[in-house]
Write a structure and sequence with these properties.
This protein has 15 helices and 17 strands. By secondary structure, the protein is of the alpha/beta class.
C-alpha cells in the first residue's frame, strides 16, 4: 500500500540525482575546456588605487579568480616587479631609471604599462571652528604649495582667508601630513607643484623634478605616515585638528571626510569628483608607445569643471615568454582580471571615489594585454576586447564620445573665485550644489561674477536657466542621471559562471519541490495507517 505513494518521491530524487551528476560532469567538462585553469596571482604597489583594486578582487573571486594585492607604495611595487617577487605591480609613475636618492629604479624583467583607473589627488583636512568641523574649505594651488613647503603655517593666514572670500579661520598651527614611503601619490603631487609652482617647490626641494619620498624638514610641524590609509587616519584622528594631507579622493569619500576645493584655471574651486576628473583628463597626452601620461594640459585645463590634479594609475605586467614567475594559468588569470578591471570593474570606480577610464585608454590597455597571449599562445583572449566591454564612459554610437565628461555638471556660481563659498559639504562624492553660503544663510548659489545671485540647479549643482549662468557659454551642463550599470561579472569563458549554472538551478528545484513531495508522502502515509 505504501509503495505507490513512494514512487513519485523516488522518481523525483532519482531525477535530481541524475541532474546533479550531469551538472557535475558538465562543470568538470567546462573546467577542462577552458584554455587554462585560474590560479592565484600576486601584486603589490600603489595605495592610491588600492581601494578600487580590492573591490575588483572581491568581485572576481566568485568566478574562481584568486588575486592577492598588497599596497606598500608605488616604489615598492616597481621594486618588487623588478626583483620578480610579484606577478604584477601598480604605480602612479613609470620607472625613473634612477630615483631621487640615486638608487636604481628600472627593471630588466620585460614589461608593459597599462592604465588601470583614473582619479584625483585630494587634500583632506581637519579644521574646526569651536566644535564644528569645516567642510567647505577652498584653497588655490599656490596656497597649497606654500602649506606643504612651510611658507604658510597657520590657518588664520591672509592667503587662506582670501581663497575663502574673506572668511577667517582660527589661529591654529597647520600640520601637513605627507607620505613616509615611496609613494606614487607623492610623485603626482610634487610633479604638479614642480610644473605649476616651480619657484615655491624647487626652493623647498633644492632642485627641480618630482620625488616619491616627500622631504620633511627638521623643526617643522610636518608629519610623515606610511600608506594612504595612515595619512587618512592621522588627519581624521582625535588629535588631527589643524592637519591636512594628500590622498586619492576615494579615501575621504569612504571616510565621509571633507576635502579642499582647489582653484582651477577657469577661476572655479572644484573637488575631484568622478565628473571633474573625467573632464580634466580630456587634456591628458598619452605616449602611444608606453602609455605614460603627460599631465601638463590637465593642470591648466580651462574647463570650469576640471580638477587640476587628476591622473591615473598604471599596472605593470610581465611580457617575456620566459618570465620565470609566469605560467599559462597565471597569464590567463591576469588577462581576465585586467579585462574585468578595464570593463565592468570601471562601473564601480565613481562610487568609490575614482573616475572610469576613457575608450582610448581601454583600447590601449587591451593592446598591452595582447602581449600576454603573444608570450604564450595558450592564453585565450576570445571575446576580450572593447566590443564586449561594459564601461560607463563608452557611447556605443560614437566611440570617441566620453559619456561621463558630457554628463559632468557645471560648477555652482558660489564656487567662482570672489563668490561664495558654497555651503555644501565636500567629500560626499556628489557634484557641488548651491547650498547655503556660510554668512548669508541664503539658499541661492552665492554671488555670481556679475554681482547677482547665482541660481543653481539643486539636483546637479549646475547654474540654472539653460546656458551656464556663471560663464556665459552654453557649456555641456547635464543632470546627475545614473551613470553606472549594475556591476556584474562579464564572464563568457566556458566554466566561468559555474556557480550560477545548472547546478544552482537543480539545487533550487530540489529545495522547492522535494519538501513538498515529502510532505505529501507523509500525509498519505498517515491517512493509509488511519484507514487500516
Amino acid at each position: 500500500m505504501i509503495a505507490p505513494v513512494r514512487r513519485p518521491l523516488v522518481a523525483l530524487l532519482a531525477g535530481v540525482a541524475l541532474l546533479l551528476g550531469w551538472a557535475g560532469t558538465a562543470s568538470a567538462q567546462d573546467a577542462a575546456g577552458r584554455a587554462a585553469p585560474y590560479t592565484t596571482i600576486e601584486g603589490t604597489g600603489s595605495t592610491w588605487s588600492e581601494l578600487i583594486v580590492q573591490k575588483w578582487i572581491a568581485d572576481v573571486d566568485a568566478n574562481g579568480m584568486k588575486v592577492v594585492y598588497t599596497g606598500g607604495g608605488s616604489s615598492k611595487g616597481r621594486k618588487d616587479f623588478a626583483q620578480a617577487t610579484n606577478d604584477f605591480a601598480i604605480s602612479e609613475i613609470p620607472y625613473q631609471g634612477v630615483d631621487e636618492k640615486g638608487n636604481a629604479d628600472k627593471s630588466d624583467r620585460a614589461y608593459a604599462y597599462l592604465p588601470i583607473v583614473a582619479g584625483g589627488t585630494a587634500f583632506t583636512y581637519q579644521l574646526k571652528i569651536g566644535n564644528q568641523q569645516v567642510r567647505n574649505l577652498r584653497l588655490s594651488g599656490e596656497t597649497i604649495a606654500k602649506i606643504f613647503t612651510g611658507q604658510i603655517t597657520n590657518w588664520d593666514d591672509a592667503a587662506i582667508a582670501k581663497d575663502n572670500n574673506g572668511r577667517k579661520f582660527p589661529s591654529l598651527p597647520i600640520t601637513p601630513v605627507v607620505r613616509s614611503d615611496g609613494s606614487g601619490t607623492t610623485a603626482q603631487f610634487t610633479t604638479w607643484m614642480d610644473d605649476q609652482y616651480p619657484s615655491i617647490w624647487r626652493g623647498y626641494f633644492g632642485r627641480s623634478g618630482l620625488t616619491s619620498y616627500y622631504p620633511v624638514k627638521s623643526g617643522s610641524r610636518m608629519t610623515a605616515q606610511s600608506g594612504s590609509d595612515q595619512v587618512m587616519n592621522t588627519v581624521k584622528g582625535f588629535a588631527g585638528n589643524g592637519s591636512i594631507g594628500y590622498v586619492e579622493y576615494s579615501y575621504p569619500v569612504n571616510a565621509n571626510y571633507p576635502v579642499v576645493k582647489v582653484l582651477n584655471k577657469s577661476g572655479y574651486f572644484v573637488e575631484p569628483t568622478q565628473y571633474n576628473t573625467a573632464v580634466a583628463l580630456t587634456k591628458a597626452k598619452i605616449n602611444p608607445t608606453t602609455l605614460t601620461q603627460d599631465l601638463k594640459g590637465v593642470y591648466v585645463n580651462a574647463d570650469p569643471r576640471a580638477y587640476p590634479i587628476s591622473s591615473y594609475s598604471y599596472m605593470i605586467i610581465p611580457t617575456a615568454a620566459d618570465d620565470k614567475r609566469m605560467t599559462t594559468s597565471k597569464r590567463q588569470t591576469l588577462a581576465d582580471f585586467i579585462y574585468y578591471s578595464l570593463c565592468t570593474g570601471q562601473t564601480s570606480a565613481g562610487k568609490y571615489g575614482y573616475s572610469p577610464l576613457t575608450l582610448n585608454l581601454v583600447k590601449a590597455g587591451f593592446d598591452q594585454v595582447a602581449k600576454l597571449a603573444k608570450a604564450d599562445s595558450n592564453v585565450n583572449l576570445t571575446n576580450r576586447d572593447v566590443r564586449s566591454c561594459n564601461n560607463p564612459t563608452f557611447d556605443g554610437k560614437n566611440p570617441n564620445h566620453n559619456v561621463l565628461a558630457d554628463k559632468a555638471p557645471q560648477p555652482a556660481a558660489c564656487d567662482k573665485q570672489g563668490a561664495g563659498p558654497c555651503g555644501t559639504e565636500t567629500g560626499t562624492n556628489k557634484p557641488s550644489t548651491d547650498g547655503k553660503t556660510p554668512d548669508s544663510g541664503t539658499t541661492d548659489g552665492g554671488t555670481g561674477p556679475s554681482g547677482q545671485p547665482g541660481k543653481v540647479d539643486p539636483e546637479t549643482g549646475a547654474p540654472a536657466g539653460g546656458p551656464d549662468a556663471a560663464t556665459g557659454d552654453g557649456g555641456t551642463g547635464g543632470g546627475n542621471e545614473a551613470v553606472y550599470a549594475n556591476p556584474t561579472l562579464v564572464a563568457d569563458r566556458t566554466g566561468d559562471q559555474r556557480p550560477f549554472g545548472v547546478l544552482a538551478v537543480v539545487e533550487l528545484i530540489a529545495l522547492v519541490l522535494v519538501p513538498g513531495v515529502a510532505s505529501a508522502f507523509l500525509r498519505r502515509r498517515r491517512q493509509t495507517r488511519s484507514r487500516a
